[in-house]
Amino acid sequence: MTAHEPPDGPGTEAYDAVVLAGGAARRLGGADKPGVRVGGRALLDRVLAACAGARTTVVVADPRPTARPVLWAREEPPGGGPVAALDAGLRRTTAPYVVVLSADLPFLAEETVRRLLDTLRGSAGASEGSPAAPSAAGASGGSTPAPDPAEGVLVTDPGGRDQPLVAAYRADALRRELAWLGAGHGGTAGLPLRRLVGALRLTRITDPVASFDCDTWDDIAAARARIREHDHVLDEWISAVKDELGIDLDVDTRELLDLARDAAHNVARPAAPLTTFLVGYAAAKAGGGPEAVAEAARKATALALGWAGEAGTDASDAKPGSPDTRPGSPDTRPGSADTRPGSPDTRPGSADTGSGASDSASDAG
Asked: Superkingdom, according to UniProt (predicted)?
């Protein structure tokens, strides 16, 4: 798939994303870790969903099918390590900020990516907008310059360890340090990531959930178990279905659940799934989008409530003691004759006592 370039949000600078997905996964026995499914979605697809706001997303690995469009890159030589992989991915980006992620983060969310970027951008604003602070020299009237802006923001794990592959960086700072390392070591292959990020001005945020990565099969089992917890399962299921169907649409889940409830309660239980399907179909015909879904759901909800209202009106109209005027229906009120053709009048004193009575009278004659 090709790169996706969403429009920049108001008041924000664009960012690109580089996802490193070409590791050997030795602790998984060499398994295809980016393709391992957690909650019905490949680990790589889960990470791509978290950085969906990137103008360009580059995945450093051999190409594979993905739920979202990306560009592909490969480090030289293949298997040359994370610094070489980051160097290869960064060469395909142009935005001033770049989010760098590993492909094994099952719980990374867009909110964490936004926090990283907001913190990085905020450090620049604070540096540029703050006056110089008075220096210790005081008496000489000197001042110290405002602190330089951060060049990177990392997530730390619950143990306080830096996670340089759950981070946002200034692209120019990364390029500067990559060039310096490459010149000093004859290339970037085989270099540890700490040699790169250790030269940057960094700040940190904590996010114990987002920093959880899947290095072992026990980690994957733990991630799968957590996703099936009651508080997470519905959101995870909806996300998995949207990925599987290629749908990139945010809808009001509560509104659709309320519609299903109203259809089941006021019409019939099977009406719930059928009605929500028809709402989706109608929204697609109307051009799609959350507004189209909301409008179709509103109409269907009103119809379901009106359906129940009609039933209530019919019940109140059937007043006690009123005759049943349906064709072929007897009137069973006391003292009322059934005047249907061929029906006997069984009231006391009536001459017609049925066919048996007529025969007896004839015999007597």
From this structure: Bacteria
